[in-house]
Write a structure and sequence with these properties.
- This protein is of the alpha/beta class.
- The protein has a domain of 202 residues: FAD/NAD(P)-binding domain.
- The chain has 18 helices and 18 strands.
- The strands form four sheets. Strands 1, 2, 9, 10, 11, 12 and 18 form a seven-stranded mixed sheet that branches. A seven-stranded mixed sheet has the order 7-6-14-15-16-13-17, with helices on both faces.
- A hairpin with a 2-residue loop joins β10 and β11.
- The longest helix has 21 residues.
- The two termini are 24 Å apart.
- 51% of the residues are buried.
């Protein structure tokens, strides 16, 4: 039986980042992963004859942290390509499209051509949200807790904090509707905010999603050269370069206390450690490994994804005849929205096991910006994420025509003959994510607390990374600050562990 200072369970990006910091601090660190490769939902894999990202390849908040510099990830092969514009807003009804650029003036100039009545509204939104967005970016690299958050707030000034607290208590729809009266200006923030989180747009407590546009004016969206997994591959290299060990194809089957630490049993070996880090769903550690009873219902996954190889680029019909000013419309992620009433109806449809007729889509072609992801000389990779596709689909997923229907619907947005350009494709549904990535019921957990909860460090095990049992820690999307390619949770958890073990 081997002995280590720390065993980290799960090689998603937060688990890798946590382990890399631990190893860099001189701790004997073992990272175990059930799959045969690292990265989890942030990885890039071989499928359909191409390299495809498991989830959306846009990285935003991780670029607000010092992780890339502190782990010297450029030395380990990580390079980013800037995505600007960051977003293309489309609707199923063919409303005028609009681009969100990093530069707010470029965004306003585009809106002046398509939604001139919304330009004053967008200016008012920017004036009110700028300080709060800057504060969110500053907080992204810090820890939960009253002292840490108040210190950042005091340094940033009070205006942003007041706005942040005010908006966090409201719904995203309420906040955005107080500025914009044209649905195409409301919808992208609702789709990329509460809808991605699995929450209704009018749910109280989702108001911080209204900062989505403003944060994209504070930071530049980036994509790692070679796909999203280039980030996790670089972190693995940094981890191993610091003396850490990664053991893939090593599924954990048991975790238990020992006299002076913890015993971790995997399919390949058993080891001892002073500390254990659950970098997976905390429910898995607590219920499956430690035998605790969790009375709360398990949430269901609600996202699916289609990966396809295309022989030529799609062309959006809504952009025909418009002067794009040299902008490549396939560089940004396109957010395809239904009407607001359809979006609200989709909430009910999902709960009844159905996919709304015109679903919310997040679409990009990473191979347009990143030549390394192209297939041959001219083949492109299409990434099409479909939101609110229930885990328990009425009639079941096997044999369902739903994935084909999404492709057919997307084809109505682009040139005639698009389906003939599809060389190969696959669909990943919530049950697929459960089977292949160990996500319970296909659900990607996210930190459940509000901004007030973060200040008060609750729930403590998820906000401060320390479980009730000494030597047991958590990191990942379920812990502060939450989901997305962020990495702050892994960095913060490592700091807590290093402090305790030293």
């Amino acid at each position: 039986m081997t002995r280590h200072d720390v065993v980290v369970i799960g090689a998603g990006h937060n688990g890798l980042i946590c382990a890399a910091y631990l190893a860099k601090a001189g701790l004997d660190t073992l990272l175990v992963e059930a799959r045969d490769s690292v990265g989890g939902c942030a990885s890039t894999v071989d499928a359909v004859g191409a390299r495809v990202n498991i989830c959306n390849c846009d990285h935003l908040m991780v670029r607000a942290t010092p992780i890339v510099d502190e782990l010297d990830l450029a030395t380990h092969g990580l390079g980013y390509l800037d995505v600007d514009p960051a977003l293309l807003a489309l609707t199923w009804d063919g409303d005028a499209p609009w681009f969100l650029f990093s530069d707010p003036d470029r965004t306003l100039a585009w809106l002046a051509k398509t939604y001139p009545s919304q330009v004053p509204a967008y200016r008012a939104y920017l004036a009110d949200s700028k300080a709060a967005a800057r504060l969110v970016v500053s907080l992204s690299a810090g820890r939960a807790g009253l002292r840490s958050i108040l210190g950042t707030v005091v340094a940033a000034g009070g205006r942003g904090a007041r706005r942040l607290l005010s908006w966090s208590r409201r719904s995203a729809l309420d906040v955005l509707a107080s500025y914009f009266d044209e649905e195409p200006l409301l919808l992208p923030a609702l789709v990329t905010g509460p809808t991605v989180w699995g929450l209704d747009p009018d749910a109280e407590g989702t108001g911080l999603a209204a900062l989505g546009y403003a944060v994209r004016h504070q930071l530049t969206v980036g994509r790692p050269v070679g796909g999203s997994g280039a980030l996790t591959d670089a972190v693995r290299s940094a981890l191993e370069g610091a003396g850490g060990v990664v053991r893939c194809s090593s599924r954990v089957v048991g975790v238990e206390r020992s006299d002076d630490g913890w015993i971790v049993k995997t399919t390949g070996a058993t080891c001892e450690a002073r500390a254990v880090v659950g970098a997976c769903d905390p429910r898995t550690v607590r219920t499956d490994f430690l035998g605790e009873v969790d009375p709360t219902p398990e949430p269901d996954g609600f996202e699916s994804k289609i990966d396809a190889v295309l022989t030529e680029r799609p062309r959006y019909l809504a952009l025909e005849g418009l002067d794009l000013g040299g902008v490549d419309p396939l560089v940004p992620t396109a957010v395809v929205s239904p009407t607001l009433s359809e979006l609200m109806a989709a909430c009910k449809e999902r709960r009844q096991g159905r996919v709304v007729e015109r679903p919310m889509l997040l679409v990009n072609l990473p191979s347009v910006l990143d030549e390394t992801m192209r297939v041959g000389e001219s083949g492109h990779v299409l990434s099409l994420e479909v939101l609110w596709t229930p885990y328990s689909l009425q009639g079941g997923w096997p044999g369902s025509n739903e994935p084909q229907r999404w492709l057919d619907q997307y084809a109505t947005l682009v040139q005639t003959g698009f389906t003939d350009t599809i060389q190969a494709w696959r669909a990943m549904t919530p049950p697929d994510y459960e089977e292949q990535f160990g996500m319970r019921r296909g659900y990607a957990p996210s930190f459940p607390g509000t901004s007030v909860d973060a200040m008060l460090s609750r729930p403590r095990a998820l906000a401060r990374y320390r479980a009730d049992q000494p030597g047991l820690y958590f990191t990942g999307a379920a812990t502060y600050p939450g989901a997305g390619i962020w990495g702050a949770s892994g960095r913060n958890a490592a700091a807590a562990i290093i402090s305790d073990l030293s």
